[in-house]
Amino acid sequence: MKRPILIHPDPRLKKACAPVSEITDDLRALAGDMLETMYDAPGIGLAAPQVGVLNRLIVMDCEKDEETEPAPVVMINPEIVAASDEVNVYEEGCLSIPEQFAEVTRPREVEVRWIGLDGEEHKAAYDGLWATCVQHEIDHLDGKLFIDYLGAMKRQMITRKMVKLKREKARA
Q1: pLDDT tens string 82-119
Q2: Can 137 be counted among the known catalytic residues?
Q3: Which of 59, 44, 48 is nearest to 17 (CA)?
Q4: What angle (nearest 5°) sits at the alpha carbon of residue 58, between those of residues 10 and 151?
Q5: Candidate list 69, 92, 137, 168, residue with the active-site label
Q6: Do the Cβ atoms of 63 and 42 come closer than 8 Å?
Q7: 10, 40, 97, 129: which is deepest, by most CB within 10 A?
């Protein structure tokens, strides 16, 4: 089931999320809903707080080529355990900050540990777009948005645009 995506500013997007203590059918359903919502948006990543659930759960799939099979990843309680000194700059966007993009500098490679829906611990190294995406989504779990990496004026300008967008949507 597609879920509505919260739009910044929303206080739930600025809260640190609670760790998931057990994998339940509700959690599996949430992960499925989040993947459906992400693909429909369309996006390459989505964190639980973006759909109003303050738990440490993210989904992502950076395979954007239509010729390539989707490669969905569901991460419960993800954490970055290593990051490269080398950095990448990507123009990032966010489903909670529609149609706004800015360059963000992050480590080029990261190693991530998480629990899968199978209840097992997983670990993987990511680079390029996948590394940027997983860092962006984990930031959401800590109440951090990509605009928090920007200067105050640019961040305020984007926030004002989002306030206006929310006002317009409320009237529609």
Answers
A1: 999 999 999 999 999 999 999 999 999 999 999 999 99
A2: yes
A3: 48
A4: 50
A5: 137
A6: no
A7: 97
